[in-house]
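sorry for the late reply, my laptop died twice this morning and i had to redo everyting from scratch. anyway the thing you sent over, i finally got around to it. pasting the sequence first so we're on the same page, its 133 residues, then the predicted structure underneath. double check i copied it right bc i was rushing
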Amino acid sequence: MTVQGKTHNETFEEGLAVRREVLGAAHVDTSLGATSEFSRPIQELVTEYCWGGVWANDELPRKTRSLVNVAMLTALNRSHELAVHVRGALNNGATESEIQAVLLQTAIYVGVPAALESFRVAETVVNEVRRAG
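ok and here's the structure:
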């Protein structure tokens, strides 16, 4: 048994569904399609525990989770994951203004260089979403 009395497979499948809803099926399919035997364990762990255990929990709305991730990924200076989660935040109903507000807050608490980089990453994603929409 694992999260909330579910089997590993149930939690994994729920995580896969949530991951696709938040990040988009194309992104998830690309990520999983690029999985090697070496990287398979981390993809399975992320899908089961991150997406199936945490993101599937309804204690926080998905938009809130997305905005928290934007702040944390800025603090960690993880630009690739930040781009993924900015897109997810938009998918989850966050507005451009809300993303900007989170990034401004990170400038104060995390540092201006990290926030500047995150603004650049976020703007690129926002512009891509606008063009696609």
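The mean pLDDT is 95.
thats about all i looked at so far, will dig more tmrw
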